[in-house]
Amino acid sequence: MRVELHERSSPETQDLRSPTEGDIEALGELMYRAYLGTIDYEDETLEQSVAEIRKTYQGDYGRFDPEHSSIAERNGLVVSATLITRWQDRPFVAFSMTDPRFARQGLARASLERCMGLLRQDGEHELRLVVTLENEPAVNLYESLGFRQE
After folding, report:
1. pLDDT band at 100, cuts 50/70/90?
2. What would you measure as the largest C-alpha separation in the chain, in angstroms?
3. Which one of 68, 109, 126, 134 counts the least CB within 10 Å of its CB?
């Protein structure tokens, strides 16, 4: 899916921040919780999820772009994140994930909107992602933010 980045009002982002190296373990734990039992779950273990985040930071999915990525925390727990990479020299949503205990609270939307706004501020004009089309909640969220299938 792809969205053109237009000027739009930015949501309140006081609870959102960019990820750091120190977030790898917490992001792996979030990934495990977020994907467990969903259509995108492929029997990964917690250790494999942490390894997947390490691979993201190391550039296995394009150069990791923490400045344009976003994390939401609640009481010190990472509960939602959007991780942006540069794939084929364009911004790409490598992962968008939310802890199911915090689903339907607007965290994924706020995180994505923050990333989109930061990218636009820095001169980017589009953002791409890949989603499992059977993951209706994710597809609905992306479409509501202006993403269209290519």
Report:
1. very high
2. 40
3. 134
Asked if 80 and 72 count as a contact pair (C-beta separation under 8 A), the reply is: yes
What does the CA dihedral 66, 67, 73, 78 come to, rounded to 10 degrees? Answer: 0
Domain 2-144 classified CATH 3.90.105.20?
no
pLDDT tens, residue by residue, 46-65: 999 999 999 999 999 999 99
Q: How far apart are CA 55 and CA 134, in angstroms?
A: 26
Can you give the length of the chain in residues? 150
Give the DSSP letter of residue 58: H
For residue 4, the surrounding DSSP H or E stretch is strand 2-4
Cα separation of 19 and 22, whole Å?
A: 8
Average pLDDT, the chain: 93
Whether 56 and 83 have beta carbons less than 8 Å apart is answered as: yes
